[in-house]
Amino acid sequence: MMAPETLTLEADVLVIGGGSAGSVAAIKAKEARPEATVLVLEKANVKRSGAISMGMDGLNNAIIPGHATPEQYVKEITMANDGIVNQAAVLAYAVRSFAMIQELDGWGVKFQKTESGAFDVKKVHHKGAYVLPMPEGYDLKKILTRQMRRVGVKVSNRIMATRLLTHDGRVVGALGLQTRTGAFVVIRAKAVILCCGAAGRLGLPASGYLYGTYENPTNAGDGYSMAYHAGAELTGLECYQINPLIKDYNGPACAYVTGPLGGHTVNAKGVRFIESDYWSGQMMMEFWRELQTANGPVYLKLNHLAEETILEIERVLHGTERPSRGRFHAGRGLDYRDRMVEMHVSEIGFCSGHSASGVWINERGETTVPGLYAAGDMGSVPHNYLLGAMTYGKICAENALQYIGGAGEPGVDVGQCEAERERIFRPTRERNGLPHHQVEYKIRRFVNDYLQPPKVTTKMEIGLEYFERAHRDLAAIGADNPHDLMRAMEAHFIRDCAEMAARASLFRTESRWGLYHYRVDYPEMDNERWFVHANLRKGADGAMEHLTRPVAPYVVPMTDDELSAYHKLRIPAAQA
Amino acid sequence: MPTVAMKFDVPVTVDESKCIKGCHLCVDVCPLDALAIHPETGKAYMARDECWYCTPCEVDCPADAVTVGIPFLLR
Hints:
Chain A is α+β, with helices and mostly antiparallel strands. Chain A contains 16 helices and 17 strands. Chain B has a single domain (12-68), classed as Alpha-Beta Plaits (2-Layer Sandwich).
């Protein structure tokens, strides 16, 4: 490779990541202030990027008047998270999410409606009804892209941000790599909204295939790492994302689609063992326990359903979200009519969209660093899913615009730019250096071996030792093209996330959230000591440091019975 | 350090008789940027074994030339 050219860009509002959260953040910022420059950086192409590259088959947390209230929803999410939630942030989503649905409806997103034209809401959660099917949701990303073009959002595809620019304690832009041309990219911005998705390439899938992850593998934890290095607090990183998936295919078996149509999760005897298929740590604990017994493995059961129901399930599941599952089943000769679908426990990751591991944000989408906002799977609002990503995109846009009104021109630290240029392009001087995929594989195998629950203190300490040593492996990566430089930088993100996962898990000396944070050395939940948010940030000495934040007084009061409702998910064997 | 090139079975197949020269839609939409245009044939092909088997390359192809299979380790 030649010496890198520098591409310099400027924006009033910079959105990093053009998935569901980022697209909506950009649209709403530009709509609210048409004279402002709103720039989206996307490491793929906004047409098909992010967690829902092929759309989504439904909204999992729709609060529709007549079916549920924002207060009921806040209660459900509080109990699903063993009480450790900032209710104000959940409530901010809940009260604004219906307007977001109406807006999407107006943009042409097709939701399932009843004959009378009302939204056709289904029950999947333990207590309330919040699932709104979107059987033709495969065009969602194209609709968002069209909307960005309409309002005049600038989009730069194939640019991966690698570090945030900071100045005088605020975030003032980002640095990165054009992954096709190999240009070094410097973006100055008055405010930055991080929408980089989950840390989905943390654990290694059971298949051993690096990119066979539950999450879109482009989501390598970029946002978690960048926020950390900019000094932002992260929270709940010990509350991993672990999902019940189709074994090997590693996509959702999808109880949210099949449940309302009569499908359910069963053991090898075809018997139900959990009350609710809604994804929670407590549900995953029962799932994992069943895998350890003679009743394992666990299956999705559809073979008792009528032909027309199965045809409908195939139409939805083989057309949206992860449509290639149909050909996966065909390759193994599996037909939903005859056999049950084997399920398994996913690799671990960080994702607030599904669990509660994210960059700490409040109900205004603000991180702990001025000028930096976060939304979507990486923002810390628990169980926020797709609709939460979009709603918080909107919330971040509003508050970022308000912030830049009072912020001065961003200064740029030349030393920071030069250090990052050196870090990104160092592999080009190591033509015979380590291949990125071997380095990545090793880090992620250590994640599986030492961090995956059940969590064992000594094992996590051994893992941590390697993650520290892995700096040397990262420094020895070689690359001779921009694409491989991108993968090398992703390996840095993955290492950072692995170290954070180990440290956060070691810090909280109790068990909570079912399987997500099941520590065999500390098997009980300890509300006396640990009814707090456990946060992590970069300390003054450059090392990771821990702090706790009290759980803010609830805005929606909870009884003890309500708080423990998700601990009663197992169906007693006698009744099954 | 010593390194060696290895072959990988890759999941995306492009029918060159259907693939349109000058079109690069499948290359554009691949989230992993795993597809490329071959400099000699001008046709698309899978250049890297980095695939989420997500299917935009197949669905968005105007010529029906792209087929997404399941990666070998999973199928």
